[in-house]
Amino acid sequence: MITMDVLLNYLHLHTTIITVVIAVVFDTMLGAIRSWKERKTNSSIGIDGMTRKTSMLACVVFLVCLDFLLHINLIGWLPEQILQIFKIIHMDNIGISDVFSVLFVVFELLSILKNWALMGLPMFKGVNEWIEKFLETFTEELPKDD
User: Fold this and answer.
1) Which of 18, 58, 96, 139 is deepest in the core (most CB within 10 A)?
2) How far is 99 from 73, CA to CA, in rounded Å?
3) Looking at residue 54, what is its pLDDT?
4) Under a CB-based contact definition with an 8 Å cutoff, are residues 64 and 11 in contact?
5) Contact 57, 88 (CB under 8 A)
6) Under 8 Å CB-to-CB from 34, ≥6 apart: which residues?
7) CB 11 within 8 A of CB 61
């Protein structure tokens, strides 16, 4: 029988939740600093962002619970090249929560890099240009030069 203590311990030790939380907190901090720096603080944008981030975290927690109950392992669905990476880090079980967590972290990292570049903070050589080209191609988030 599964007790609440066992489930809470499993949630507490699940690294994807911790990774998503770290990415969300860092992105939120950078977004707040950027809005303060640009003097463009908007409560509706902030509420929308926090709603999305809270929903993201709730989704990850729900999927971790689902993985815990159903013991789903998606590692057999991965291509051989990606399996080699997981073998290096000794990961032999990939649940639904892990897949969604990776996607959420990627989206958060893109947002972090966007905020970083738009604030003009120093970055590795060529990364700012790559981010600006990426944002110009796939989003409308870069400020227009007048």
Assistant:
1) 96
2) 11
3) 93
4) yes
5) no
6) 115, 118, 119
7) yes
How far is CA 73 from its chain centroid?
A: 21
Residues 3-22 pLDDT 10s = 777 777 777 777 788 889 99
For 12-15, which contacts have Cβ atoms below 8 Å and span 24 or more sequence positions? 14/64, 14/97
What does the block give as tokens for 47?
A: 């509420």
Q: Which amino acid is at 56?
A: M
State how far the Cα of 141 lies from the Cα of 144, in Å rounded to an integer. Answer: 9
Taking only the tens place, the pLDDT of each residue in 58-110 is: 999 899 888 888 888 877 777 777 777 667 666 677 788 888 888 898 889 88
Asked whether 69 and 7 are in contact (CB, 8 A), the reply is: no
Could you give phi then psi for residue 39, rounded to 5 degrees?
55, 45
Confidence at residue 1, expressed as pLDDT on a 0 to 100 scale = 54
